[in-house]
Specification:
transmembrane helix; cell membrane; transmembrane; MIP_CS
């Protein structure tokens, strides 16, 4: 390729960026979506993806806690738990992003709603589908691993000994901010429209890594929520006082973190 061709190609790329316009914000109440099959297909995708995510992740958590039992190799270790969560999200986002957006997390869905990427109707239905999928996924784990599930805490999120309620809430806010900020950056339509063609294919990778590193940081504090559906599913099936005592943290923290991330991306980075 000659220097002239390179210059022409670069000029065309800059022109495309200059002409780029953001897609219009989603309607607040778009009831017309209720008549479209694509919405229900997306709900099924979110339900199944969250079910699979909770099955894999909670089973891994139970295996990790089982490590202290007589058989030393029955668990995957601290790092394995973080990898399990991050890798499963990477796989499921890759599989479902073209159908539902691959949220698999009410906090992500709420953040996209705050950023005017989703209507209120789709937001509420997504969150219901995700929570139902989470409950079913944990239910499968409980059915398969009933004794270790009941004796090892059911994978429920709790504030660890030595940490305050405020510290746990802050950890959930910051952890969810990192995740949702990564989601907004990785899926920015301006980036996917103007950068190399591999960006849409690779977008699940930073999201999965964000989940991985946040788990490394916050497992010792709260067991890492950053996903209200994950916390709800485990709490419903375990259904003990310890699981419900501070459960509000795992909704309030992620929703605050998602809101801050959405506003930061919209008003500061793209403002």
């Amino acid at each position: 390729m000659s220097e002239t061709d390179v210059a022409i190609e670069m000029e065309a790329e800059f022109a495309a960026k200059a002409k780029y316009r953001d897609p219009p914000p989603a309607l607040l109440l778009d009831t017309s979506e209720l008549k479209k099959w694509c919405l229900y297909r997306a709900l099924i995708a979110e339900f199944m993806a969250t079910l699979i995510f909770l099955y894999v992740s909670i089973a891994t958590v139970i295996g990790y806690k089982n490590q202290s039992m007589a058989e030393a190799c029955t668990g995957v270790g601290f790092l394995g738990v973080a990898w399990s969560f991050g890798a499963t999200i990477f796989i499921l986002v890759y599989c479902t992003s073209g159908i539902s957006g691959g949220h698999i997390n009410p906090a992500v869905t709420f953040g996209l709603f705050v950023g005017r990427k989703l209507s209120l109707v789709r937001t509420l239905l997504y969150i219901v589908a995700q929570c139902l999928g989470a409950i079913c996924g944990v239910g499968i784990v409980k059915g398969i691993m009933k004794h270790p599930y009941n004796s090892l805490g059911g994978g429920a999120n709790e504030v660890s000994t030595g940490y305050t309620i405020g510290g746990a809430l802050a950890a959930e806010i910051v952890g969810t901010f990192i995740l949702v900020y990564t989601v907004f950056s990785a899926t920015d339509p301006k980036r996917t429209a103007c950068d190399c063609p591999f960006v849409p294919v690779l977008l699940p990778l930073p999201i999965g890594f964000a989940v991985f590193v946040v788990h490394l940081a916050t497992i010792p504090i709260t067991g890492t929520g950053i996903n209200p559906a994950r916390s709800l599913g485990a709490a419903v099936l375990y259904n003990q006082h310890a699981a419900w005592k501070d459960h509000w943290i795992f909704w309030v923290g992620p929703l605050i973190g998602a809101t801050v991330a959405a506003l930061y991306h919209k008003l500061v980075l793209r403002g």
